[in-house]
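thought: fold this chain, then report.
action: predict
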Amino acid sequence: MNKKVEFIDWGLRDYQVAWNNQETIFDRTVAVKTQNRTNNTHLDTPNYLVFCEHPHVYTLGKSGHPENLLLNEAELKAKNATYYKINRGGDITYHGPGQIVGYPILDLDNFFTDIHLYLRTLEEAIILTLKDYGIESGRYPGFTGVWLDADNDKARKICAMGVRCSRWVTMHGFAFNVNADLDYFKNIVPCGIDDKAVTSMQSELGYALDINEVKEKLKNHIADLFQMELI
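observation:
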């Protein structure tokens, strides 16, 4: 029987607001798990798959290097961008309009308790979505995320990932470049990798996509791979 997961699309949402919303949901899920352990109860934990887009923002993971942001405060303001240090894994990345940001807030005890398998499964959902549009993609050994031409010197990243997992509850997630403005990536060393390019579906196909259509295909692939029932 597939696990019920609530799907929410926040639309365009300020990064700090979205982060606070994630924390609230995450804390609520952890509280249920704590209550079950303390009281020897078996209450179901809630599970969510959240999609959104963000205004221009750069985020730095807890293992990241601040020098990978190549803008000062005034330059950030000139580009209408903000900057946050956050509690996910990974280095620096960019979020902005035209990018599908996915925040699965899942209790992996309901699925599988393997964070590497979790990341590979999210990557597979992106790979399958790209395949729906005739774009061949895959993984780059030693790095998370989804890449094009990962086996040669034209390697370029189309989806970045950075997650947090505590007590097998996840938050943060992935940033999938659909129609994103790639110029904003020129202001950082993306994910700390200074010798690889970044791309988008629009850049690869030569036209802007219907982002809602891409979201629909992606959420269905995630549901199938995780054996979820989205509600």
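thought: worth noting. The longest strand covers residues 156-166.
final: tokens above.
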